[in-house]
């Protein structure tokens, strides 16, 4: 008699186990039918867990040699088409993000859009479409000298970064947009910039003005991007005269 | 930006007070922007705008601003002068092209092209802002308690961090150099000023040493006698060149004497 | 003749567009076949974007009355079975997490991105500009003595390497930056480091520096007479080319 509760418990447990096994079976069957390969699962988990977009080579570094990351990414992207979460390629990396049309129900996470001044917005656009470009080139297009704060701000918010130096007299620093910029605006690359192809076709982005044309700009010489090559032998003339007489 | 773009047309009609006007100018940056807004008022393809009309409008704009006693940046005035020149060239009957002069038609087509480029960049900036943005139109994963794969590098630093670190160091060094740099010398400028002040009225020869400053005239450390003498001599030679005084030394190692030059070269 | 490139570009663009449209069609067909309902999508996005697990009633509160949250959650859970990411019900509510069996590939590189310490960053910057430079020179510029760990760390992360020994009393070791350093900071060469004028324009260097203040051009220092080449195999070809052309 004393073992009755135990028996009951055991029966209950057995039933539960059976049920669970059946569920597991169903799941397993479904899983098999889904035909998800291990690479796809791994990439899914890696991208899901990463706070930043990961590039194909980052994934390759994790998953080892000889893994076809590209096709797995393509399958994964296809799998998420139409779902509430999307797989997006941006700025050379891949990340999951919520579908655009669902933004309204996610209102509570929404941040205030960053307000950029007109000068900053134009500067950003010029750098984005003309990069790499120098401060002087930005000024040439805008027709005014660029206040120091504008570039600083764009670099502060990490949408713009200094690039290589131009191999031209004075070796001016060039500026570029960052991957963060691409990622923020959901651009997969610079070719995706709105209207880029049209602007290129119109010659707006590539054409250089002939030298004979220059709208005069008095401030041009004041803020000069050109670097002065420091000359260690440069001596101050008046000092020299004094030295000479001492 | 999109919504806050000021209405340049109104501004141009003169419905502004001085303050707002200046603010708008800041917002717009400069003459090319003003021109662009004037060009837009013509409501035609930017490539086909009438540069002549544009030049006229800009000149009116400048005159109006002048009447309102608004301080205009030199950029605005230079642009006005340039446009006035271009306008006159466009209006004058065509003459034989001198080799070194660009035809006004080319100049104005280039100006139109530049306006178009600025306009497309301005529009492009707005279009970028219309793109779906993260944390506004789309959201990344909310929970961040999981392992964060960081494959790029463990240590983060960008070039700006690096440059700032460098600047911090070198700016500090600068202060050090400043302290060391205070070398007690009697500067050429001081000697020049002192000598000018003390040039005698008569033409008697005087020992150059007499013109050295008194000890109390120095604020800090007193420069060496050599330094004082050297600077006085340099300043003196300069004044000789200008015909104000004469200097002479009768023999090597002798003193140098100074005399006012009463017959300056005409 | 002159419009040939344009025509080619246009054809290329048209083909691209067609390909894209075809892909879109495939995606749409697949999407329709998937039969994902809107509630499932919304819950997916909500759980994905939420910083905390959400309970069924939290979801209901966001999605409005009369929505069958329970069955949508069940469908969603079924959908993720076998994938790299799982939908889990915890005590506090529902959340997505990576599949347990994938922990090894995630754990392997658990290191958090860390900021370089101020001392390390400053040391690195000085080496970058003044290379090849000795420990004593770094200390002279920084005005403090350099802890052993700082240089070790910079060498461990492969941004700094020992250079040749200086031909001066004590034959001190000099330090240089590495190619990894250039790659990390997106520099195409050492002469991409901005000079005095640019640093001042960016407000990084104070504007009123003494006249004789110099920011060294590191590329100019590379072939230094004071140096003894310690390692006969270490030839710096790219540096040589740079010097040669300058």
By DSSP (H or I, 4+ residues per run), the number of helices of chain B equals 9
Give the count of helical stretches of chain A.
Answer: 10
In terms of structural class, how would the helical and strand content of chain B be classed?
Answer: mainly alpha
Neighbour order of strands in the largest sheet of chain B: 2-4-3
What is the CA-CA span between the terminal residues of chain B?
A: 68 Å
Regions with little confidence, pLDDT below 50 for 5+ residues of chain B: 1-24, 147-153, 176-181
Query: Number of folding domains of chain A?
Result: 2
Would you report the number of β strands of chain A? 5
Report low-confidence residues of chain A grouped into runs of 5 or more.
218-246
Write down the overall mean pLDDT of chain B: 75
- CATH class of the largest domain in chain A, anyone? Mainly Alpha
* Biggest interface, chains and residue tallies: A-B, 68 and 68 residues
Kindly summarize this structure in a few lines.
Chain A is mainly alpha-helical and 246 residues long. Chain A has helices at residues 4-34, 38-49, 56-63, 69-80, 118-130, 135-142, 148-156, 179-184, 196-201, 237-245, and strands spanning 85-90, 93-98, 133-134, 160-165, 173-177.
Q: Please, could you describe this protein's structure?
A:
The complex is a heterotrimer, with two copies of chain A (246 residues) and one copy of chain B (266 residues). Chain A is mainly α and 246 residues long. Chain A folds into two domains: 8-100, Winged helix-like DNA-binding domain superfamily/Winged helix DNA-binding domain (Arc Repressor Mutant, subunit A), CATH 1.10.10; 118-241, Winged helix-like DNA-binding domain superfamily/Winged helix DNA-binding domain (Arc Repressor Mutant, subunit A). Helices cover 46% and strands 10% of the residues of chain A. Chain A has a three-stranded antiparallel β-sheet. In chain A, strands 1-2 form a two-stranded antiparallel ribbon. In chain A, a hairpin with a 2-residue loop joins strand 1 and strand 2. In chain A, helix 2 (38-49) packs across helix 4 (69-80) and helix 5 (118-130) packs across helix 7 (148-156). Chain B is mainly α and 266 residues long. A three-stranded antiparallel β-sheet of chain B has the order 2-4-3, covered by helices on one side. Chain B starts with 7 loop residues before the first helix and ends in a 6-residue tail after the last strand. The interface between A and B is large, with 68 and 68 residues. Strand 1 of chain B pairs parallel with strand 3 (114-115) of chain C, so a sheet runs across the interface.
């Amino acid at each position: 008699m004393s073992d009755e509760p135990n028996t009951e418990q055991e029966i209950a447990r057995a039933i539960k186990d059976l049920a669970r096994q059946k569920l597991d079976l169903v799941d397993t069957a479904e899983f098999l039918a889904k035909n998800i390969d291990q690479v796809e699962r791994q990439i899914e988990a890696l991208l899901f867990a990463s706070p930043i977009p990961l590039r194909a080579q980052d994934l390759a570094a994790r998953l080892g040699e000889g893994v076809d990351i590209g096709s797995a990414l393509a399958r994964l992207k296809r799998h998420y088409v139409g779902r509430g979460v999307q797989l997006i390629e941006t700025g050379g990396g891949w990340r999951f993000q919520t579908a655009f049309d669902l933004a309204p129900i996610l209102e509570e996470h929404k941040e205030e859009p960053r307000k950029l001044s007109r000068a900053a917005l134009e500067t950003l656009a010029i750098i984005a479409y003309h990069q790499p470009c120098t401060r002087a080139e930005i000024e040439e297009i805008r027709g005014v000298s660029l206040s120091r704060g504008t570039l600083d701000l764009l670099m502060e918010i990490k949408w713009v970064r200094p690039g290589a130096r131009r191999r031209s007299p004075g070796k001016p620093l060039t500026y570029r947009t960052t991957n963060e910029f691409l990622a923020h605006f959901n651009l997969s690359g610079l070719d995706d910039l709105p209207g880029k192809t049209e602007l290129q076709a119109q010659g707006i982005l590539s054409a250089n003005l002939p030298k004979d044309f220059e709208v005069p700009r008095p401030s041009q010489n004041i803020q000069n991007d050109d670097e002065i090559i420091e000359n260690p032998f440069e001596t101050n003339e008046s000092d020299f005269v004094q030295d000479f007489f001492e | 930006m999109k919504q806050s773009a000021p209405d340049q047309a109104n501004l141009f009609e003169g419905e502004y007070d001085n303050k707002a006007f200046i603010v708008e100018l800041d917002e717009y940056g400069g003459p090319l922007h003003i021109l662009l807004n004037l060009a837009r008022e013509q409501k035609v393809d930017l490539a086909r705008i009438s540069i002549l009309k544009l030049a006229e409008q800009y000149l009116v704009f400048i005159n109006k601003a002048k009447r309102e006693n608004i301080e205009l940046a030199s950029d605005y005035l230079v642009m006005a002068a340039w446009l006035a020149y271009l306008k006159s060239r466009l209006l004058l009957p065509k003459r034989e092209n001198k080799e070194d002069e660009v035809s006004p038609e080319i100049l104005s087509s280039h100006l139109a092209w530049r306006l178009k480029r600025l306009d497309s960049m301005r529009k492009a900036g707005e279009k970028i802002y219309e793109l779906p943005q993260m944390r506004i139109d789309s959201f990344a994963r909310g929970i961040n308690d999981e392992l964060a794969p960081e494959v790029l590098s463990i240590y983060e630093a960008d070039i700006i961090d690096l440059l700032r670190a460098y600047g911090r160091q070198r700016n500090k060094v600068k202060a050090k150099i400043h302290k060391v740099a205070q070398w007690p010398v009697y500067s050429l400028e001081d000697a020049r000023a002192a000598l000018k002040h003390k040039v005698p009225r008569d033409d008697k020869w005087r020992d150059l040493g007499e013109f050295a400053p008194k000890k109390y005239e120095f604020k800090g450390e007193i420069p060496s006698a050599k330094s004082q003498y050297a600077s006085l001599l340099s300043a003196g030679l300069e004044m000789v060149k200008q015909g104000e005084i004469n200097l002479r030394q009768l023999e090597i190692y002798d003193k140098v004497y100074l005399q006012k030059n009463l017959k300056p070269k005409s």
